[in-house]
Specification:
About 25% of the residues lie in helices and about 30% in strands. The protein is an alpha+beta fold. The structure holds flavin-adenine dinucleotide (FAD).
Amino acid sequence: MSAPFDCDVIVWGLGGMGSAAAWRAAAAGARVMGFEQYSPAHDRGSSHGETRIIRKAYFEHPDYVPLLEEAYRLWRELETGLSNPLFHPVGLFLAGPPESEAVQGTLAAGREYQLPLARLTASQARHRFPGFRFDDAFEVVWEQQAGYLEVERCVLAQLDRARSLGADLRFQTPLIGWQADEHGVRVETADGVVRARSLILTAGPWSGPLVPGLTVRRKPVFWFPAPTELRQSRGAGTFFFDLPEGQFYGFPSRDLSGTAAPTFKVAEHSGGEVVNDPAQLDRALQPADLAKMEAFLRKHIPGTRPIPTAHSVCLYTMTIDHHFIIDRHPDHPAVVVGAGFSGHGFKFAPVVGQALAELALREASSLPIGFLGWNRPARRAVAG
Ligand SMILES: Cc1cc2nc3c(=O)[nH]c(=O)nc-3n(C[C@H](O)[C@H](O)[C@H](O)COP(=O)(O)OP(=O)(O)OC[C@H]3O[C@@H](n4cnc5c(N)ncnc54)[C@H](O)[C@@H]3O)c2cc1C
């Protein structure tokens, strides 16, 4: 690939992670071009549906905690100057059998990083969270620093920041293919060819042909009528149940002004039908989508009528070990990959963007991302 380049970095896909990478690369002074096949903050990928949980005591692996500290700092930086917050620190309770992954992992991460957590028995939890039912054997962990992010507003804010720092962002412009050599990359877009020193691949559920070993899963999300106790204005926070029948999570009713009948959002984190082509996704509600959710609501949130007022369908892009991939492409050093966020990546978006930008612009990232490598042991059989 020969100079002159059109820019320093091309970002492929401007969803949750690509918008963050464009922002952080532009903040580092790079000339950035970003391409997105759909419109800003669209609803066909993985970064839509109003809200995302953010928490620090990370049951998936304690090594994520230092990244979360930096993510919290960057979300606050992104919020500066906005008239409404992006992050709502309403807290989170995790509930389940004491030996469950979420309870055990949250307590372990909390211990390792001395995070403030409160442990409650089932009867204490019933008193504190009156809209919910807890089995006698449950342990409940409360994290006050947790809460939720407004997902589409976060993506739009990252895009705005990138643009205000000089990034050239193009929407409704699919990227068609790329070639790389030791000097740089050549990317074919619907509008012509663009050359750069490096390419950041953040194609979300469309990463499959570019990154081996990913599985895309269909995830329906529901809104149900909110009992009074689930309203944010009454002190309700976010919640996560780790049960033998599955993992379920949800958000308080946001009491948006002018809403006659408040609703709350709830979904299953586990399971999900495999999707072969994200562009052909079935977004209609299927009877099977509701059956498990109804059973969960009847048992643990009995004050709601289990007939959804709305639904949305989103996509998880899973790796084999459910950990992210943030690394340089093993065969193409000019190409950096952020993929496989496995249904828990959004809270990290700005720090992922920072890591991707550093990998694209420097020799290495200063962030502790070694455990998220392309060729880590769990991925060796599939990584190619
Ligand atoms: C229902 C649901 C609930 C979730 N809940 C949480 C949560 O509570 N907390 C949390 O932290 N995370 C959560 N997640 C996970 C999180 O939202 C995702 O990990 C994150 O949004 C992934 O971002 P992404 O940039 O990888 O994908 P996307 O946001 O989908 O971005 C990829 C982009 O690439 C574009 N693209 C692809 N191919 C091309 C091409 N050829 N040319 C141009 N553009 C292209 C796509 O159009 C898309 O915009 C949830 C996910 C879902 C689906």
